[in-house]
Write a structure and sequence with these properties.
Layout (H helix, E strand, L loop, with lengths): L1 E3 L6 H12 L1 H6 L5 E4 L3 H11 L5 E4 L6 H5 L3 E2 L4 E2 L1 E6 L5 E7 L7 H10 L1
Parallel strand pairs: 1-2, 2-3
Antiparallel strand pairs: 1-6, 4-5, 6-7
Length: 120
């Protein structure tokens, strides 16, 4: 699962990543590896991960070229230079099987994602 978030060190983005961290074992039991992505630089992402005390969840940098991964999935917000807040499920064959874009000031429901994964 690719969990896009607009920017590190912001309230909803922090809650989004922590909700995945808390449920990390639930994802792995469903044969899913979740990762977080934003356009922040690698040093920023590393410091943020330490601050959140992440143990399992990896948060990746889509910094250079800016937002290239988000653009590939149609999730780049040109006006703001960030990714949308979105969850994308990619199957083992590399096919996108589920996408949900959320309001920027909205915390994605991790249980909704887990429920979809259980149906696969």
């Amino acid at each position: 699962m690719l969990s896009f978030h607009p920017l590190a060190w912001t309230g909803f983005c922090t809650l989004q990543m922590l909700s995945i961290e808390v449920n990390y074992d639930n994802f792995t039991r469903l044969n899913t590896v979740p990762v977080g992505l934003s356009v922040d630089s690698l040093p920023t992402k590393e410091a943020w991960a330490r601050d959140m005390k992440l143990k399992d969840l990896k948060i990746l940098s889509d910094f250079f070229p800016s937002g290239e991964v988000a653009r590939a999935y149609g999730l780049y917000r040109d006006k703001h230079g960030t990714a949308e807040r979105a969850n994308v499920i990619v199957d083992e064959k590399g096919r996108v099987v589920w996408v949900k874009v959320y309001e920027v000031l909205f915390l994605p429901d991790v249980n909704e994602v887990l429920a979809f994964l259980k149906k696969l």
